[in-house]
Amino acid sequence: MDRSSHSFGYIILSFPGLILAAWIGAVFSSLWLPLQPDQIHLPFILKPPGSAVWFGFDDLGRPVFDRLLVGAKTSFIVSFSVVIVTAVIGVVVGAYSAWRDGWLDHVIVRVMDIVLAFPGILLAIALAGMLGPGLGNVIMALSCVGWVGFARLTRAQVLSLKHADHVSAALALGVSDTRIVFKHLLPLAMAPIIVEATFGVAGTVIAEAGLSFLGLGVQPPAASWGNMIRDGVRYMLIAPHMVVIPGLALCLVVLAVNLLGDRIRDILHVR
After folding, report:
1. What share of the chain is helix, strand, coil (3-state, %, to 5)?
2. What does the domain layout of the chain look like in residue ranges?
3. Burial 119-134 (b: 16+ CB within 10 A, else e)
4. 76 Cβ neighbours under 8 A, 6+ residues apart
5. Is 63 helix (H, G, I), strand (E, B) or coil?
6. Would you say 241 and 56 are in contact if contact means Cβ atoms under 8 Å apart?
7. Mean pLDDT of the chain
């Protein structure tokens, strides 16, 4: 067994791997658990965690555990949807810009610079405010911001590879530009793109929680870690579990994804 196999095995059994496995398990928990995230139990309003109910109830008497699992599904859908959309757009735009070069490359670079001139989260808040709240609009707003990182990275990789000998040989043989980009350039640039995607998942989880906290993301009664924390802030002194539990889940998932990205970067020897 080679070093890469040992490394990926270590990832699966490590702290990040276990946390991500728990996250994925929470996403599909509704398949085997009778979740009732919107069920109100008036006698249990603000009841703290105990032996009978581990995670307690919120200010409306809803089970925090059930809402935590639904919030995990929300963050999973948003983060991976945004990363997939931004990766596809960014890779295509960055590769096309670097390969074509000339005035088109200059225009695309200027557009990327304009987007990067604004703080990403502030631009996402502005876009979400214009589009309105909702899961689809959150994905759209974050996608409009996140593609630039993939585009810049892909452009840099293609610029460093486009004059390689195998590319010159493919041009001499009359291979089409599209085939050269997708078969001879992008496969060699995938390692840093994969690492960027892992860090993008962590950033999107935080961004989605932030938008939901501000009321621009997932709307009640749908559960999100962000709006769970927002609802619990008012009861922080008498029911801290409403903030601590979703906040801890958010921190663990982001930490696990970032550690996973670091580990993958070490395995792929990305410099």
Report:
1. 75, 0, 25
2. 3-34+55-268
3. ebeebbbebbeeeebe
4. 23, 24, 27
5. strand
6. yes
7. 86
Tell me the pLDDT tens digit for each residue of 155-174. Answer: 998 888 888 888 888 888 88
In angstroms, rounded to a whole number, what is the distance separating the alpha carbons of residues 269 and 271? 6
Separation CA 25–CA 80 (nearest Å): 15
List pLDDT tens digits, range 44-93: 899 988 877 889 999 899 999 999 999 999 999 999 999 999 999 999 99
Structure tokens belonging to residue 196: 């960027």
Residue type, 69: L
CA distance 170 to 176: 8
Whole-model pTM: value is: 0.87
User: Are 49 and 241 contacting, i.e. CB atoms less than 8 angstroms apart?
Assistant: yes
**Pairwise CA distance, residues 99 & 227, whole Å:** 44
Query: What percent of the chain is modeled with pLDDT above 90?
Result: 36
Burial class (CB in 10 A: 0-12, 13-18, 19+), 190: middle
Question: 125-154: per-residue pLDDT in tens?
Answer: 888 888 888 888 899 999 988 899 999 999
**φ, ψ at 205 (rounded to 5°):** -60, -45
Q: Tokens for 110, please give them.
A: 């200027």
Calpha distance 191→194 (Å, rounded): 5
Report domain 3-34+55-268's class.
mainly alpha
Half-sphere exposure of 135 toward its Cβ, with a 13 Å CA cutoff?
Answer: 15
Buried b (16+ CB within 10 A) or exposed e, 45-58: ebbeeeeeeebbbb
